[in-house]
Design brief:
Blueprint: H1 8-22, E1 26-37, E2 42-44, E3 55-58, E4 63-66, E5 72-74, H2 77-88, E6 93-94, E7 102-103, E8 106-117, H3 121-132, E9 134-138, E10 144-148, E11 163-174, H4 180-183, H5 188-212, H6 223-227, H7 229-232, E12 238-242, H8 251-264, E13 275-277, H9 279-324, H10 329-334, H11 338-421, H12 423-429, E14 437-441
Antiparallel strand pairs: 1-2, 1-5, 1-8, 3-4, 6-7, 8-11, 9-10, 11-13, 11-14, 12-14
Length: 442
């Protein structure tokens, strides 16, 4: 594809990264993989040291995963195109009578995009401190005031759990079906053509089953349909581009390709956004809130100790003045007027009022401390329940994946035995299937 007239692959990659760059409210993680299905074998085009890879279907996520497939973190469409260009050198091509560089495999570009909610640690900490901060100040009349953001609401306020959204883009370059009489393929080239036609035939059967709405869809009949299981009948949007030849010599292949495209257009999927809870970020958020709660409790305990010390001092002063106000010969001799006695009485009343005020403030502080402790216990309980639920979900997933892997191995072995016993009959049945085409799955 030239820069002036880019093809489907460059257009799709540029569109993805344009959307990522324009979204300033989220952070994105993009991973690129490149593989091929050659003679019913999945091969990694970015790592030639791996000869054969196995695919599995995850019943929890509803997606197909390839074990050991190389996944590269990418940041731009240009970087993706450079990596794909390197992988093209590892793709299997050969000369035939119909094409000088005929594709002998189906190539699949896989782009996985994960969107995270933005959570700046400093900003979150400031918001939590503002919501949980408790301050003490002295009013103009000398009274001690306690102000707490949580006084108006006794319930624990938690931020919404951080969520992440996952998406997968599959771009598939299908090898065209071949008539051996036209291509002149012999030996290994003929075997390649038979397996290409077999996989395309299985793809046609899957499309037929999806259109007819049958209970069983034969995804396991080939590696290609297995890889495209979540793209064809899962939570996805699927588009197909059919290429045909304008010459009369290729009219049968063109007609077969158009018939396949017409059937594929009738497949109807219901797409829903794939949203998950970001447990790692939620864990960090809960830990931060726990630390802030502990700091608040420590501050309030220190303030209570200071208030108790002041109350003790006031009680001591009041006791001293009360003892001085008792009638005695020396005191009666020193008091010369009734006004001085009234002054002492007023001072004693003032100290009594100050002591009462301090006691009330002390009770308020204890109530705030108790409420904060209850909120901390609620938060710890919530964190414990969430951790236990995550552990149970992971255990269930591991057990289900292990059982599914064992069943898949047994079924694949049975299918491979059937395919090896009758390959020629299948080739004759698909003699009129489509030419080279591209399938782009979003």
């Amino acid at each position: 594809d030239s820069a002036a007239e880019p093809g489907i692959l460059p257009r799709a990659l540029h569109d993805v990264f344009d959307r990522v760059d324009k979204d300033g409210g989220h952070t994105y993680e993009v991973q690129l993989s490149y593989m091929q299905v050659y003679m019913e074998t999945i091969m990694d085009l970015l790592d030639t040291n791996q000869d054969s890879l196995e695919s599995k279907f995850d019943p929890v996520s509803g997606q197909v995963e390839v074990r050991g497939l190389t996944s590269v973190h990418v940041r731009s469409a240009v970087e993706c195109l450079q990596i794909i260009q390197e992988g093209n050198f590892n793709r299997v091509t050969a000369f035939t009578n119909m094409n000088a560089q005929s594709s002998r495999s189906h190539a699949i570009v896989q782009l996985q995009v994960t969107r995270h909610e933005c959570m700046e640690d400093l900003k979150l900490q400031q918001e939590l401190e503002e919501s949980l901060n408790t301050s003490t100040n002295i009013s103009s009349n000398g009274e001690l005031n306690f102000e707490s953001a949580s006084d108006s609401n006794n319930t624990l306020q938690l931020n919404p759990p951080s969520s992440l959204v996952r998406g997968k883009l599959m771009l598939v370059d299908l090898a065209g079906s071949e008539r051996i009489k036209k291509t002149g393929a012999v030996g290994i080239r003929a075997s390649e053509a038979q397996l290409i036609n077999l996989s395309l035939h299985c793809l046609g059967n899957v499309v037929h089953s999806l259109v007819d709405g049958t209970a069983h869809v034969p995804y396991r009949d080939s590696k290609l349909t297995r890889l495209l299981q979540d793209s064809l009948g899962g939570n996805s949007k699927t588009a197909i581009v059919v290429t045909v030849s304008p010459t009369a010599w290729d009219v049968q292949e063109s007609l077969s390709a158009l018939n396949f495209g017409q059937r594929a257009m009738k497949v109807d999927n219901v797409v829903q956004k794939h949203v998950e809870v970001d447990y790692m970020r939620l864990n960090a958020q809960l830990r931060m809130e726990l630390e802030l709660k502990n700091d608040t409790i420590a501050t309030q305990k220190s303030q209570i100790l200071n208030l108790e010390s002041e109350i003790s001092e006031l009680k001591s002063r009041l006791s001293e003045r009360s003892s001085q106000s008792k009638p005695s010969p020396n005191l009666n001799a020193s008091v010369s007027s009734e006004a001085e006695m009234q002054g002492l009485t007023l001072a004693a009343d003032t100290l009594q009022q100050e002591l009462l005020t301090e006691a009330q403030e002390h009770d308020v502080t204890k109530e705030n401390l108790q409420r904060t402790q209850e909120e901390l216990n609620q938060l710890k309980s919530l964190f414990h329940d969430m951790k236990e639920a995550l552990t149970n979900a992971e255990s269930l997933r591991d057990a289900t994946m292990q059982e599914l892997q064992e069943f898949t191995s047994q079924f694949d072995a049975m299918v491979n035995g059937v395919a090896e016993s009758a390959p020629h009959a299948i080739v004759e049945y698909v003699n009129g299937s489509m030419q080279d085409g591209y399938v782009a799955t979003l």
